[in-house]
Amino acid sequence: MELRVLKYFLIAAREENITKAAHLLHVTQPTLSRQLMQLEKELGVKLFERSRHRIILTEDGMLLKRRAQEIITLAEKTEREFVRREGEMIGEVSIGSGELKSSRFLGEAVAAFQKKHPLVQFRVFSGDSDNIKEQIEQGLLDLGLLMEPVDISKYEFIQIPVKEEWGILVHEDSPLARKERVRPEDLISCPLLIGQRELVHQQVRNWFGSLSEEMHMAANGNLQYNMAMMVRSQVGTAVTIRLDCQYDHVCFVPLSPALESNTVLVWKKVQPFSPAVTAFIEFFQKFVEK
User: How many C-beta atoms surround the C-beta of residue 201 within 10 A?
Assistant: First the structure.
């Protein structure tokens, strides 16, 4: 498979129309149709269901779409890693990060690094610890900012000197909004919204202790903004970390006993990196030590 043909395939899949895709790619419609049919023949599967005005991906086509996106992203990332400019550091550092208070610390480190190396670009991917680790394993990300608990046995890491404080997001009309802190017994009758990671669920259950069996799970998710909107609509109360943001009609109340989580910057062990990534890891270690 050629990268050019995979790009053709992705545009055709996005537009769901051969004529529109051919126009965007600056090729003739017969040329694009022939390339796509050759790709189907090469793979031995049918990628599209074709009608007079529209093409729709088959199940095999949807699988190839996901794989093609990963291949193209990795190829483009590899090309950027080999960019050189004599006497100056240049390149790209790709980092995955969750919605974390530690992201501010990471941002400060990136800003300080770019003052020394202004030609190095950063690409930031937002996600939870599980899908960030997946992208690191696929080679799509160099580094990941992860919140514990998380399995980092396969990674080198630097611990971030910032604690993530746990609490609840609750509607301002709730009696819980008037408390300084909430205890497990305050929450057993509340519909709860919790992050979707199983390790996070276990951490929250541990905090509830003997009352964990009385937890009422209403929903889960991986973005705090979405959960905050659920809280605003009075779907339930979100158990989450404190971020530097506010939501209308929603309050943050800390937990008691206090619950905190560490965060770590991780990268794969025994992994060759571009000069820009290597330099940033070394810089970040010194930045933390300061």
Answer: 17
CB neighbourhood size of 235 (10 A): 15
Q: Given pLDDT bands bounded at 50, 70 and 90, which one contains residue 86?
A: low
- Residue where the block lists tokens 């000197």: 161
Measure the CA–CA gap between 154 and 178, rounded to whole angstroms: 44
CB 105 within 8 A of CB 113: no
251 and 127 housed in the same domain: no
Both 69 and 97 in one domain: the answer is no
pLDDT by residue (tens digit) across 202-223?
999 999 999 999 999 998 888 8
Range of the domain at 173: 164-260
pLDDT in tens, 115-152: 999 999 999 999 888 889 999 998 889 999 999 888 89
**256 in the same domain as 197:** yes
Q: How far apart are CA 177 and CA 165, in angstroms?
A: 17
Query: Is-contact 55 12, C-beta < 8 A?
Result: yes
